[in-house]
Design a protein that fits this description.
Elements: H1 2-8, H2 11-38, E1 44-53, E2 59-70, E3 74-76, H3 78-86, H4 90-113, E4 120-125, H5 135-146, E5 153-158, H6 166-178, E6 182-188, H7 195-199, E7 205-208, H8 210-213, H9 220-235, E8 239-242, H10 250-256, E9 261-262, E10 271-272, H11 273-279
Parallel strand pairs: 2-4, 4-5, 5-6, 6-7, 7-8, 8-9
Antiparallel strand pairs: 1-2, 1-9, 1-10, 2-3
The structure holds ligand C2E and magnesium ion (MG) (3 copies).
One magnesium ion (MG) binds next to strand 6.
Protein name: GGDEF-domain containing protein
Keywords: Membrane, Transmembrane, Transmembrane helix
GO molecular function: cyclic-guanylate-specific phosphodiesterase activity
Length: 297
């Protein structure tokens, strides 16, 4: 459509438009090729984002977030390279690496940090991984070999299952549940799949997307939509976590909505493993300015 528009606007525009289009495609193709070697050559690492109880400040979880430091192009966002990985089977290897590395880190924290360690490690899983016939077998092996209790592992799956068959997604979710792990629906409120679909998912947690959370204090209309979604989620008897909490004002509104856990830049940026470990035990003890939070030790 952009190309068509450019044509309508005359020849000069076309010449102007093409290089950037070509550049984008070239970058995409290059990243796709480079990503295959990135895992082997240690260009990937994980950051961890704390998930906190809004009631107690307790560190309920850590979400692992993959980072790619490209030797020539520098830091590349997962928002850019995950979709590229999903276009090929690279996502299978990448997903396995992310799970393995997350569990290796969690296992270390459980041993070294004891009670200070997060209750749960939360790992993003691409819906494309569901189409891997080896997925369950591989996950079972990685989990078993990690020595992390499966009850302390959560897998995050986006609400919108896209072009993956819904029956397959539900089957895989049940297979994962049988491994003893928790399942979270990520980016809830952004998908095209209806709320009806998630009712058939065996889930433990729903993560309200930042696009909902960011608007609860700024727009009365949005707040009303989030409110009705929250009531539906509450009736499913699952845990509700708010993503992308950036201001103190959002906290009492979220609590009112029945959302008792949150993550976001207000509490912390995603941290590398070392910084996360240093901060452990401090999360939730500072920066909380709403009523009820002063009572934290
Ligand atoms: P997500 O799973 O919904 O992760 C949350 C994203 O929101 C992260 O961005 C995080 O840094 C950001 N975020 C958290 N709190 C705030 C906040 O208060 N304000 C704002 N503006 N942003 C906040 P990130 O790390 O760039 O990840 C983007 C997406 O890439 C993730 O969204 C997830 O869908 C995907 N992703 C990241 N790591 C992995 C992975 O290991 N595997 C897969 N399959 N996908 C991943
Ligand atoms: Mg996530
Ligand atoms: Mg999310
Ligand atoms: Mg999100």
């Amino acid at each position: 459509a952009a190309m068509y528009q450019a044509k309508l606007e005359g020849r000069g525009r076309i010449r102007h438009f093409q290089p950037s289009m070509r550049e984008r495609l070239t970058r995409r193709a290059r990243l796709g090729v480079d990503l295959q070697g990135a895992i082997r050559s240690h260009q990937l690492h994980l950051n961890y984002h704390p998930i906190l109880s809004l009631d107690s400040g307790h560190l309920e979880g850590a979400e692992s977030l993959v980072r790619w430091n490209h030797p020539v192009l520098g830091g590349i966002s997962p928002a850019e390279f995950i979709p590229i990985a999903e276009e090929s089977d690279t996502i299978f290897d990448l997903g396995a690496w992310v799970l393995e590395e997350s569990l290796r880190q969690m296992s270390h924290w459980i041993q070294a940090c004891k009670d200070l360690a997060p209750d749960v490690i939360s790992v993003n899983v691409s819906r494309k991984q569901f189409s891997d016939p080896q997925m369950i077998e591989n996950f079972a092996r990685i989990i078993r070999e990690s020595n992390v209790p499966p009850a302390r592992i959560q897998l995050e799956i986006t609400e919108d299952v896209g072009d993956i068959d819904l029956d397959l997604v539900v089957t895989r979710m049940h297979q994962l549940k049988q491994l003893g792990v928790k399942i979270a629906i990520d980016d809830f409120g952004t998908g095209t799949s209806t709320f009806a679909a998630i009712k058939s998912f065996p889930i433990d947690t729903v993560k309200l997307d930042i696009s909902l959370v960011s608007q609860i204090v700024s727009s009365i209309d949005r707040a009303a939509i989030v409110h009705s979604l929250a009531i539906l989620v509450r009736n499913l008897n699952v845990k509700m976590v708010a993503e992308g909490v950036e201001t103190a004002q959002q906290i009492p509104v979220l609590q009112e909505l029945g959302c008792h856990s949150a993550q976001g830049f207000y509490f912390s940026k995603p941290l590398d493993a070392k910084d996360f470990e240093t901060q452990m035990g401090l999360f939730g003890t500072h920066g909380f300015t709403v009523e009820g939070f002063e009572s934290f030790p």
